[in-house]
Amino acid sequence: xxxxxxxxxxxGVEQSLITIIRTILxxxxxxxxxxxxxxxxxxxxxxxDENIQGEQQKTLDVIANQLxxxxxxxxxxxxxxxxxxxxxxxxxxxxxxxxIAFDPLDGSSNTDVNALIGTIFTxxxxxxxxxxxxxxxxxxxxxxxxxxxxxxxxxSTMLVLSTGKETRGYTLDLTHGxxxxxxxxxxxxxxxxxxxxxxxxxxxxxxxxxxxxxxxLGGDKTYNMRWNAAMVGDVHRILFRGGIFIYPKDxxxxxxxxxxxxxxxxxxxxxxxxxAGGKAIDGNFSILDKRLDTLHQRVPVILGSTCxxxxxxxxxxND
Length: 319
Ligand code: AFP
What we know:
By secondary structure, the chain is α+β, with helices and mostly antiparallel strands. Helix content is 27%, strand content 25%. 1,6-di-O-phosphono-alpha-D-fructofuranose (AFP) is lined by residues 55, 106-109, 198, 229-231, 247, 259-260.
């Protein structure tokens, strides 16, 4: 089995980008070890603080953020960082070649129940004529990403990564401590009978989502519902088995643009899904064509098997 580094070299990824990916993964290995120790690691539970999104922070959110930030801050080729857990961007190096955004711990409500969690990240080329502390470093379209990935801390630790070509899957080999290529090309199956949505939000949905769910449940095909409460877990299943993941906007004031964050959740997942032959939209438009307007901007996310995403898109949306 090939090691990650040789796959990246064969894919023609430039050395400075490889170094940054390596640094993120060094943090992921440390996190993977601590998470696997569960209660014994002393990193579970909540802090008494809230993050910038107004969500209660878990101890592991804070540790993961600190670890990734500190390791990346030592890299000469990193210009700026953005994180779900940081209100503002973090300037690193004026001469850095890349800017990186991450969700250090996606699905943090799962930490205390020993369920799926992950780290999501995205990398853009830095803009030379903007300072490292200028948030416009991230005022970008999804299609400008040069690398997107996530690490899933599950029964095994897996990395799913795309540097512009195929979306590939790697498994952390605990015997030598490196990621090995176990899934050279991930291709999302087009035929699906699985959907992932938080059905408890149904009373608040707009017509498009109501219509789509009503149509598939009332149709000839039998569907199954799956929900991990961690986007990484749901996207991972879809990359392997097909299906559709929906986190729509709804009528509640705090969900007016959905729940998920465009920069460090929707952009990277959209790149991984589209490079695996699937589709990712905000209901009408491609997520990769969207431009980030504010750092922690939210966006509705509908992604997965192309036919199913197209079906959602064509559902009535006149409200
Ligand atoms: P947390 O990281 O705050 O737990 O949020 C996870 C998440 O943003 C995403 O990973 C899930 O798909 C979604 O929230 C789950 O949201 P519900 O609370 O609606 O289940």
